[in-house]
Amino acid sequence: MNGILTMKALFKTGGLLAVACILSACSDSAEGVWLGECCNDTIGGSKSALKATMKQTGDKVEGVLMLQDDLYGSGHFVGYINGKDLTIRSEGDTQTFVNITWTGKMKDGVYKGTYRVEPTPSAALLGKKVQMGTFIMRRQ
After folding, report:
1. Which residues of 17-54 are buried (b: 16+ CB within 10 A; e: fewer)?
2. 48-53: which pairs have CB atoms within 8 A and are 24 or more residues apart?
């Protein structure tokens, strides 16, 4: 009988630990408003402030990315979370650049990563090249 009570006690404790794990995973969610900056290394280190508003459903994220100052690329994005890794794709301006892929990793509540900007086929014919950059953002 004592063994059964001990097992029940362990089960209850395990249930509480499971709830704590679920709650702590929620704190790593990408949901919310993120502020930071991005730097386009290809065009001489031009920087822009950025704001990302994200909604997360399971491992999928979507939202709106707003860039200010010198860089372009504001618009809707979709992507996914895999553990602490974030990958999103924003639309670009659709005339010159498209398929901006942002890849980052969360550490200590901060996403840091890189992005890659693809030119449209017509812009590539005019000599536009792939552009690369970095970003950092913190939840607000």
Report:
1. eeeeeeeeeeeeebeeebebbbbbeeeeeeebebbbeb
2. 50/135, 50/137, 52/77, 52/137
Q: What confidence tens digit (pLDDT) does each residue in 95-109 have?
A: 787 789 999 999 999
Q: Which residues of the chain have pLDDT under 70?
A: 1-28
Residue type (1 letter), 132: M
Nearest to 65 by CA among 135, 128, 130: 135
Q: How far is CA 67 from the centre of its chain?
A: 15
What is the SS3 assignment for 30? coil
pTM given for the model: 0.76
